[in-house]
Write a structure and sequence with these properties.
By secondary structure, the protein is of the alpha+beta class. It has helices spanning 4-8, 16-30, 40-54, 57-66, 86-94, 121-126, 271-276, 335-347, 363-372; strands at residues 113-119, 128-139, 155-156, 165-172, 175-182, 191-192, 205-216, 225-228, 244-250, 257-259, 262-270, 278-284, 287-293, 302-305, 321-328, 350-353, 356-360. The termini are far apart.
Length: 374
């Protein structure tokens, strides 16, 4: 376990100024840019870590009291958990350890794009191939993404000489040190477009309208997004295109209502057909389907036609078509129809006077009599 005071060559009662002065002297001597010894970098890390502990009054007090740094190994190689990043100091003062990162690339990935496409409910049930017109950025057809006019090329920046970075002096606790900064002349690219393409103005891409066909899978719903890789905007300077996201919007249908993967529909049945029973035909997305109306069918009953709903987007099979029965009651019967209805009521034990039920031998009469005796 190293001793931070010994690493800096100061006594335990050294003042903050003495500690700072000792660190500056050792840092200049041991910095890897000026010291080629094999152990120079390790020693530089050790003295820097020692200075980081002893220059902070609270950390120094804990170190002097316990002999460690908040319970961690106070070896020079341990930097974790101390709020200290040797690399940050290195890059701040010495531009990333004296090594440049190289020029930036003009070529970048294009942005993703999002469009909304409307489809009918029938198309959502079975899927459909949809042709789209998309206005987006495409690689410049004139320069092919080079950004330069035909016959020309980017020229090396005469300020940074192609590195994309320049050195600048900065005052620090170590004195004057050199830092690296992005070249303002070429914006860090290392080259300059002296003669840009006339069509794309040196960007390497232009706006254009193009057509494409997408396969909309069966079972999509409003809000479903389809990702088309590489169909988004082309990147600058010939960079790869982003992705295109197609969001579905399913139109309402006048005959069917979707609920999950089930479809709902209403079938109107005449009162006599509901009472006597009948066979009807209903038009569905799968063609005409026979519907069996049993005698005595009541309004609101539901007939389930299995596997005639929406195709499951993930998995196999389809939902169901739920047919809700609506019993049609005559609204304006003529005299003959009204007479027949009265005869039917009489046969059923129902007596009407001026449109009011006054006597019945059925359940309602029994309920009336029971309530009257309370």
């Amino acid at each position: 376990m190293s001793n931070h005071y010994d690493a800096l060559g100061v006594s335990r009662d050294a003042t903050p100024e003495e500690i700072k002065k000792a660190y500056r002297k050792l840092a200049r001597k041991l910095h890897p840019d000026v010291n080629n010894a094999d152990d120079a970098q390790d020693r530089f890390k050790a003295v820097t870590h020692a200075y980081e502990i002893l220059s902070d009054p609270q950390k120094r007090r804990v170190y002097d009291t316990t002999g460690n740094e908040n319970g961690t190994d106070n070896g020079a190689g341990n930097f974790a958990g101390q709020g200290f990043a040797f690399q940050d100091i290195f890059e701040t003062f010495f531009g990333g350890g004296g090594q440049g990162h190289g020029p930036a690339s003009r070529m970048r990935r294009g942005q993703d794009a999002l469009i909304t496409v409307r489809i009918d409910l029938r198309e959502a049930v079975f899927g459909v191939n949809k042709k789209l017109e998309v206005e987006t950025a495409v690689t410049c057809p004139t320069c092919g993404g080079s950004c330069c006019r035909e016959g020309t090329h980017p020229t090396t920046c005469d300020v940074c000489h192609g590195s994309g970075q320049i050195q600048r002096p900065m005052r620090s606790i170590l004195g004057n040190v050199m830092t690296l900064a992005t070249c303002n002349s070429c914006q860090g690219f290392g080259t300059m477009i002296i003669d840009p393409c006339n069509e794309c103005m040196g960007e390497g891409r232009v706006r254009s309208r193009r057509s494409l066909t997408i396969k909309v899978p069966a079972g999509v719903a409003t809000g479903t997004r389809i990702q088309l890789a590489g169909q988004g905007e082309a990147g600058p300077a010939g960079g790869p295109a982003g992705d295109l996201y197609v969001e579905m919007k399913v139109n309402n249908d006048p005959a069917f209502l979707r609920e999950g993967d089930d479809l709902h529909a209403t079938l109107s049945v005449p009162m006599t057909a509901a009472a006597l029973g009948t066979e009807l035909t209903m038009d569905t997305y799968d063609g005409d389907q026979p519907i069996s109306i049993r005698p005595g069918t009541q309004a609101g009953e539901v007939i389930n036609l299995r596997n005639l709903g929406v195709t499951h987007l993930r998995g196999y099979g389809r939902g169901n078509l739920l047919v809700h029965i609506h019993v049609e009651t005559p609204t304006k019967p003529d005299a003959a129809q009204e007479e027949l209805l009265k005869q039917l009521a009489a046969l059923r034990g129902e007596t009407y006077t001026e449109g009011k039920l006054v006597s019945s031998g059925g359940m309602f009469a029994k309920l009336r009599d029971k309530l009257g005796n309370l």
